[in-house]
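User: Reviewer 2 asked us to show a designed sequence for the structure in our supplementary figure. I'm pasting the structure tokens here. Could you produce the per-position amino acids so we can include them in the response letter?
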């Protein structure tokens, strides 16, 4: 454009709608420095606002011109031609600005040539932007797919076996990555630690939070720390790390094969249930404390060991199960969950977990899940 119009310098500004700014990364006389200016100031801003060519024979006589750049660089701007770059639908793509006609000032013929060049430049910029957006989306999709694979691969590939118990679990994120996590960690003395955690929201941020909590649990168990102390320290760390308004609900359980007992601690995670097979009833487990990451001094007291008889079940599920919706807006709820479990109760833990999953899927139909869904089922068999 500079050469065609026989001028000294030319700059093509792109329009950043999110910040209402004009910016240029390549311009004559500026090196590699990016230039950003408000889209409503200066002669380029005037062209952007009016969507019309601005032709100024003497810039220093025009009140819209900002002489600060000339003073800072020692350059002397005389004539200016600012041309809006418009897409076919009229949207502003950018502004081309040409400085200092070699001889005289810019003419009406220059304006016609500039308008033709501007139309081509607008198409090229729009195409470049669409390609860049597509490449960015593809990169984001690849990154999310990788994050999803990492998160899913971090869940236990196989669950530990424990004499007298069956354990099954599954987790389905609402997006590529989810804010739910579960874990089952074997301890040396015929016992396991259960964990199910649910961070507020779903997506990459909550996924990072719950994976951090899971990692803290695993590392501390390797160091032979007591479970209540682990949860206390985990909470303090999450208070320090989580943004304001974010927290994690979690259930921690200790299953002992030698005594056939369960003890647990619920930090805001509920509803949780024990199915008492001998009486064919569900008993809700009370929440013991607020979610993790809110109060720095959280009192952690695990419930006394509770004996589980043959056929008894522990059901730990995230709220994405109970709060699943169908096409009409009806909620899956606790009663439907209980019914699905009751129907499948004579099967093994794996088939009970699968039955609940299928019940939720059939209830929701084609409607995408609004929240992550995670279930841990423990069945006493001996």
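Assistant: Here is a per-position design you can include in the supplement:
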């Amino acid at each position: 454009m500079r050469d065609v119009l026989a001028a000294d310098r030319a700059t093509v500004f792109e329009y950043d709608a999110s910040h209402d700014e004009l910016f240029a990364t390549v311009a004559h006389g500026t090196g590699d420095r990016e230039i950003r200016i408000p889209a409503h100031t200066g002669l380029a801003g005037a062209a952007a606002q009016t969507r019309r060519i601005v032709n100024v024979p003497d810039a220093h006589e025009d009140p819209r011109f900002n002489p600060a750049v000339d003073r800072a660089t020692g350059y002397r701007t005389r004539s200016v031609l600012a041309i809006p770059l418009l897409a076919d639908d009229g949207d502003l793509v950018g502004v081309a600005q040409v400085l200092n006609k070699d001889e005289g000032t810019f003419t009406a013929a220059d304006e016609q040539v500039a308008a033709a060049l501007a139309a081509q430049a607008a198409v090229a910029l729009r195409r470049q932007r669409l390609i860049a957006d597509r490449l960015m989306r593809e990169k984001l999709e690849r990154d999310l797919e990788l994050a999803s694979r990492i998160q899913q691969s971090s869940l236990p590939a196989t669950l530990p076996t424990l004499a007298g118990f069956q354990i099954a679990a599954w987790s389905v994120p609402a997006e590529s990555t989810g804010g739910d996590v579960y874990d089952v960690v074997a301890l040396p003395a015929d016992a396991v630690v259960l964990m199910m955690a649910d961070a507020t929201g779903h997506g990459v941020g909550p996924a990072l939070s719950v994976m951090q909590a899971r990692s803290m649990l695993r590392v501390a168990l390797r160091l032979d720390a007591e479970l209540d102390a682990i949860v206390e320290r985990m909470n303090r760390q999450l208070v320090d790390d989580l943004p304001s308004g974010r927290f994690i609900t979690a259930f921690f359980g200790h299953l002992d094969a030698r005594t056939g007992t369960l003890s647990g601690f619920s930090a805001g995670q509920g509803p949780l249930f024990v199915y008492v097979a001998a009486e064919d009833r569900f008993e809700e487990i009370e929440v013991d404390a607020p979610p993790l990451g809110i109060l720095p001094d959280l009192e952690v007291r695990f419930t006394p060991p509770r004996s589980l008889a043959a056929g008894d079940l522990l059901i730990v599920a995230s709220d994405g199960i109970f709060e699943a919706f169908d096409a009409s807006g009806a909620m899956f709820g606790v009663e439907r969950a209980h019914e699905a479990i009751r129907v499948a109760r004579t099967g093994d833990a794996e088939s009970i977990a699968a039955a609940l999953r299928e019940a939720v899927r059939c209830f929701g139909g084609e409607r995408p899940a609004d929240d992550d869904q995670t279930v841990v089922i423990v069945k006493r068999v001996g």
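For the response letter, you might also mention the following. The chain has a mean pLDDT of 89. The domain at 156-380 is CATH 3.60.40.10 (Phosphatase 2c; domain 1).
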